[in-house]
Amino acid sequence: MSDLEQAGHLPGIPADAVGRRIVAHEAWGETVAVALPSLSEEQAKALCGHVRIRARDTLRRMETARIVAAIDRASACLLDRSHPLRRKAEALLPVVTGYDRETVRLGLTSTLKTFRRPQLLRFLAEDFFNPGVLDGFQPAVKGGFVRAQGPALLLHVWAGNVPALALWSLVAGLLVKSGTVGKLALAEPLTAGWFARAIAEADPELGECLAVTWWKGGAGAVEAVFLREADCVMAYGGNETLAALRAKVPVATRFLPHGHRIGFAMVAREALDSRRAGPLARLAAHDVVRYEQQGCYAPQMLFVERGGAVAPGEFARHLAHALAATASRHPRRRLEAGEAAAIAAWRSAYEMRALEGEGPSGGTELLGDLADPWSVVHLDAATPLSPSGLNRTVAVVAVDDLAEVSGLVAPHRAYLQSAGIAAAPARLFRLADDLAGIGVTRISALGRMTAPEAGWHHDGRFSLLDLVTVTEIEHSAEAAAEGFAPYAD
Amino acid sequence: MRFRDRAVLVTGASRGIGAAVATALAAEGGLVIVNYRQDAAAAEAVAERCRALGGQALAVAADVTDPAAVAALAERIAEEVGRLDAIVNNAFAPYRFDPDHRPRFRDTPWEAYQRQFDGAVRAAYTVVQALLPLMTRRSGGSIVNLASDLVARPSIPYHDYTTAKAALIGFSRNLAAELGPIGVRVNCVAPGLVYPTAASRDTPEEVREALIAQTPLRRLATTEDVAGPVLFLAGDESRFVTGQVLYVDGGLVMG
Fold this sequence. Notes:
The structure holds 2 protein chains of 2 kinds. Helix content of chain A is 40%, strand content 20%. Chain A has helices at residues 41-57, 64-79, 84-97, 101-112, 117-127, 166-175, 191-202, 204-207, 220-229, 239-248, 277-289, 312-329, 337-356, 405-409, 425-437, 475-483; strands spanning 4-6, 19-27, 30-38, 138-139, 145-149, 153-157, 179-183, 210-213, 232-236, 254-258, 262-267, 299-305, 364-367, 375-379, 393-399, 416-422, 442-444, 469-473. The N and C termini of chain A lie far apart (77 Å). The model of chain A has no long low-confidence stretch (mean pLDDT 94). Chain B has one domain: Rossmann fold. Helices cover 42% and strands 15% of the residues of chain B.
């Protein structure tokens, strides 16, 4: 595979005039070279201008149903396993991201099927009582009329931790009819551009209102152009990246950051009977393995309640073997030096604790070797939430009662988002109440933590509603207008 | 060196099959815990042979049917070795294999059955219970239980002994089903008549010749013949094999 894959989608900019930066990716014994667009200041300005004007002239006037249809067709291309684009995605993404082929294949399908027409309609219905407000003025309950519109130019700054992650915000922007410019992430610079091109193919007019490009983060002039031109900036990444970006965004521009998160899961004693504990551990392992805990929603700690037929220590062993068994189907991606060091540090911290502790049966039990592509630590004492070493490392914390957990995770309030829960209905709701109070915004089943459902509220925010501003025709204006009608008595 | 950095407990390892398994493991670089009940000198000699072969060895006395003794054994392994990759449950209750003077069913008291159950199933039960927490700190542990081909083909009906070995096979399969999900495999090795051992010395020439005549490979098993399949099941080469009974009897029993 030595072809050069062109990343991005640049309507209105002659392809031969665009500078390229070539980045080689290597994994699974293959190499893929990706050509990232590298625009000049003038080109950046022209691109923003082109998208803004085309969005104003065409996208604003499109019915939402037409946008939904175009996104639906683009998703269909990428879901069709015989489609050239899908075949390319399955071939290139494992090499570019390092994730194994099966993970990429299953992950692509799981993400893209949330962007079919029924799911997109649900996405709209989730945020708008009457999605018609995006197409024109609709009567308001309090009187008068209201319509909603997204920013004229919406800039996305994407992260590459999970393949196809960019599609969530890209789709949200299009649904609220925003001219859209996205910045690719180095770690996953392909899917957003492919998707944009598939949309352009499905609906060429819509394709003109959408650009996908790249610039070196923090690289002064070009970045400044994009930040200056945008009406709203939606950014994903670590806190440092976000803080640096926020400092550069003009004060009147809206900034919607999505920073790092730490996920956890809880298993109640009623779920820990002899029949179901094993399968539950397998589901938890799935959440740990999928995307190597790089996503904001992956669990890094599991709180397991005592008193079930299967004790927390045994659950930890089930989890350990499920991780070991999964590794043959989904091999762990090759770790960067920093990642390997993070795992070693995480392990040795617990090794120290095990040595200092009350002995192997009492305190801390580290399962698996450093050479294994996974690690599980079993902590016999209630322990506050803390980040794992990532890349298939996870702590199983024994608690007497899951009600303790909200207290154990509360110190991380600012970083909470997803929690997986396996518990009976009454407790699920009771626990959810506590978790909601400390900032958890999403509760899923085990096994579904890395696959948020269609229309989910990322970080508890309304993905579409957060983007729009409404224009209201107050009742007074409507009533006064009646007086000026040609048919007025 | 298939067992380098691997620790294996062999019960009843001071003589016979146990000693052969221990030394074969040591020859593959393994650290062997040579468990014995009474004969400290013999066990120490086995341990010495293990070291001479390039392995490490630790002789530890424990009656494997005694939970307190096994708990002490487990503690010693945890402290001195810190890991356990495989268990070979080889020890069994003393039994005299004498075709000419074997007790008939009507002369076999229930206590004789009980003694054999204790020696086979209870011993394996006690050892696995005590050592599972240490073994499961890593994924990929293996338990090998020594059964007998008499279960499939009672050439000579040693009622109590063979019934207990049959129970051990059932015990092993259930354990395999439950421990598979936590990464522990459980298999049995079922030897035919192994000669010469202390247990088989009373089997007369005539009986041995009859067995040899019916054995496709035309001889009796040696202790070394049994060690190979035990090492296979104890080690990583059989990592996708569990709940199986491997007959080691020259083809006397098939399937």
